[in-house]
DNA sequence: GTCTATATGGAGATAGAC
DNA sequence: GTCTATCTCCATATAGAC
C-alpha cells in the first residue's frame, strides 16, 4: 500500500503499472493480487483511509476546546499540516477520485460531504457567537477547504517553509477570511494575532 | 484539440485513449497524427495556450487602472472566472503537468513562475501604498493563486453559483487575506465592500 | 504467500491506398 | 488530409508449481 501511494503520487493512478508497485514493494506483480483484487481496490483503500483521516482531523478540531476562533485555527492548522507532511498520500487521496469505481466513489463522496458540513458548522458557530463576520458561509467554507486541500498539489518538502510554518500562516489567512479579530484590531494587527484564550 | 481537452478533463491524460479523442473529433485514430505527432504534444499545446492565457489575464489586471485594491480585485475576478467558465480546460492545464515531457514541462514551469511574480507584484504594490497589510507576501501570493486554481477542480456548472458570483465572492475573500479595507471598517463591513474609487 | 510463466486485451503509433 | 488495416508493445490479471 505504501508502494502504491508513492507510485500513484508520482505518476498518477493510470500511469502507474502494477509492475511498478510490485517492484517498489519488492514483490512480483502476481503477489499484489493476493492482497488486493484489482489495482482500483488498492486506490480505494488508500482513498478511504485518507478520507476517514480527514474527517477525524476536522471533527476533533470542531469539537475541541475553546471557542470558534480556536476551533477554526485548530482545524486549519491540522488539516494543512496533514496535507503538507503527507502530501504524497494526500495528493492521491484528493486528486485521483475519478479513477475510483462508481460504488467506491459514492462511499468516498459521502465522507467528502461530511468535511464540508464540519467546516460550515465551525463557521456558523462563530457567526452565531458574533466572532466571525461571513457574508456567505457555504462559499467561505468551500474556499477554506479548497485552500487546505490544494496544499498537497504544490507543497515541496525541499521548499523554504515546513508544514508547521505553513500551517500557522494559513490559519492566520483563514481567520481573516472569516472576518475574525473583532472590530478593534483590524488592518493594523499582525495576521497571526488571535483573540481569545484557551488551547 | 477541443476533443482532447474534453477527454483529458473527464478521464485524465493517461486514461484517455487516442481512439477516444479521435471519435469525439469525428476522425479516425490515424487522422490525429496528421496534426499532432504524439498524444503528449496535444497535451503540451493545450497546456501552453492555457498558461499563456493565465499570464495574460494576470498581467492585464496588474497593469490595469486603479490602485492595488482594484488591481487585486481585477486579477482574482478574472482569474477565478476563467477557472470556473473554462473549468474543463483549466483542469487539464492545471492538473496534468506531470504527463508533460521534460522539455515541455520546463517551458510551462517558466510561465507558472511568472504568474507567481505577477501576484507578488500586486501585493507588494499594495503594501508599499499602505493599502494592504500582509505579514508574508510570498505565502499569501501562493495561497491566493492556489485558491483560484483549485476552483477548476471542484467547480460544477450545475451548482448554485455561476462564475460571476463566485468570482465576486472570491475577490472579497482575497481582499481580506490581503488585509485591505483600511483600519476603519473592520469586522462590521460586508466583505464585498471595497475602499478606493476608480475603475 | 510467493514465484515464473502467460493469457488476453488494448494501447500508441505507422503503412499505404485514395 | 483522411481512411482502413495493422504493427508492436505492454498493460492487468490469472494459472499452477512450490
Q: Roughly how many Å apart are the termini of chain A? A: 36 Å
Shape of chain A: elongated
Report low-confidence residues of chain A grouped into runs of 5 or more: 184-199
Number of strands of chain A: 0
Helical residues, percent of chain A: 55-70%
Structural class of chain A: mainly alpha
Quaternary class:
homodimer
Q: Assign the CATH class of the domain at 39-177 in chain A.
A: Mainly Alpha
Task: Give the largest interface.
Answer: A-B, 43 and 43 residues
The profile of the biggest β sheet of chain A is: none
Counting DSSP H or I runs of 4 or more residues, the number of helices of chain A is 9
Layout of helices and strands:
The structure is a homodimer of 199-residue chains.
Chain A: H1 2-11, H2 18-24, H3 29-35, H4 39-62, H5 68-85, H6 87-95, H7 102-128, H8 137-154, H9 163-177
Helix pairs in contact in A: 1-2, 1-6, 2-3, 4-5, 4-6, 4-7, 5-6, 5-7, 5-8, 5-9, 6-8, 7-8
Chain A binds a DNA duplex (18 and 18 nucleotides) through residues 17-19, 27-35, 37-39.
